[in-house]
Write a structure and sequence with these properties.
- The protein has 322 residues and is of the alpha/beta class.
- It has a single domain, classed as Vaccinia Virus protein VP39 (Rossmann fold), CATH 3.40.50.150.
- It has 10 helices and 13 strands.
- The strands form 3 sheets. The protein has an 8-stranded mixed β-sheet. A 3-stranded antiparallel β-sheet has the order 1-2-3.
- Strand 7, helix 10 (219-233) and strand 8 (240-246) form a beta-alpha-beta unit.
- Helix 2 crosses helix 3 (51-67).
- Residues 14-20, 43-63 and 255-260 have low confidence and may be disordered.
């Protein structure tokens, strides 16, 4: 698959890395716009006429890590279909911008339990971990999960501020939820590292936030994704999903036309509609709302947003209960 050129990132080879693993790391510097935070309504309500003083004090104490910090992510420069989770994709960068903006301009993500689906390099979950109580970073395959663990370690200085609890766990969308605690494809030692404990499953079901980036690029994967999404969102606490994607245009023999693979607008064509796949009013459906990226500052400078990146807010409900 294609590679991405990171314009401002410092990319370097990691000495001694095995050839089968991610042997590149990039530091993504951030462009923190303090004026956008100052103008935010949340600051006005909390501090009124003293908001500039509050901003200066909190900037020195809390934001200083962001002013001179960039996420360091170990990744592949290019990837094949089998190891796309080892590459940093633009949808992950825009979703990281969204998480940073919500974290800096509101308290919506403070002290929450969250779960990232198809986390890949773990960038989005790492960004959220600064303010969340617990983050489950999930994907499948030892190489991808090991790389997530390495990236959490690389960014540990940022994570220490709130000492969040980060769990890297295997989650196969084609399998049942909750995961079977008795079966695992890994060795006994690896099972201890990436398998679920019963208490973690209970905590994950109390999550209120789900995140996913660039996880829709084939029909089979889309079906599996919405399947696990239904199983997760129908249990425990009420949840909201923020899904970032990049539309990729290819010629379809079936459609005899150029189509945008990975476009969730196929399911929510009006930008704020329902997707259920059936007419039975008692069955579940998803409600999607397209987020206006014009309201989300670009903190990470490494990519061009263009018109092909989208973020969707997706909720779950039973049709008969709306």
């Amino acid at each position: 698959m294609s590679s991405i050129v990171y314009r401002h990132a410092t990319t370097y080879k990691i000495p001694g890395s095995p050839s089968t693993a991610s042997d590149q790391a990039s530091t993504f510097p951030m462009n923190l716009n303090l004026n956008s935070i100052y103008d935010n309504e949340n600051w006005s309500l909390r501090f009124g006429a003293y908001k500039w003083l509050a901003l200066i004090l909190i900037t020195d104490f809390e934001f200083r890590r962001y002013l001179n910090y960039g996420f360091t992510i170990q990744h592949n420069i290019t990837s094949s279909l089998g190891n796309v989770g080892l590459q940093v994709w633009r949808a992950a960068l825009v979703l990281t911008d969204f998480v940073l903006h919500k974290s800096l301009s509101s308290s919506d993500f403070n002290d929450i339990i969250a779960l990232e689906l198809g986390a890949g390099t773990g960038l989005v979950g790492i960004a959220l971990a600064r303010v969340a109580r617990t983050v489950f970073i999930t994907d499948r395959g030892m190489e991808v999960l090991d790389n997530c663990a390495a990236n959490v370690q690389l960014n540990s200085s940022l994570l220490k501020f709130h000492e969040p609890s980060i769990h890297i766990r295997e989650l196969d969308w084609k399998e049942a939820w909750p995961p079977n605690l008795q079966t695992c494809d890994f060795s006994s030692q690896q099972r201890t590292i990436y398998s679920w404990a019963s208490s973690e499953i209970e905590e994950a079901e109390r999550a209120t936030l789900l995140l996913a980036a660039d996880v829709i690029y084939s029909d089979e994967l889309t079906d599996s994704f919405f399947g696990i999404l239904e199983r997760l969102m129908s249990q425990g606490s009420e949840k909201v999903l923020y899904l970032a994607l990049e539309k990729r245009y290819n010629f379809s023999l079936e459609e005899l036309d150029v189509v945008a693979n990975g476009s969730i607008s196929l399911f929510f064509p009006s930008g704020g509609a329902e997707y259920g796949g059936h007419d039975d009013a008692s069955l579940p459906c998803f409600v999607g709302e397209l987020i206006d990226l014009g309201h989300i500052p670009q903190y990470i400078r490494e990519y061009e947003r263009g018109k092909d990146l989208e973020i969707w807010k997706i909720t779950y409900c039973l049709k008969g209960l709306k």
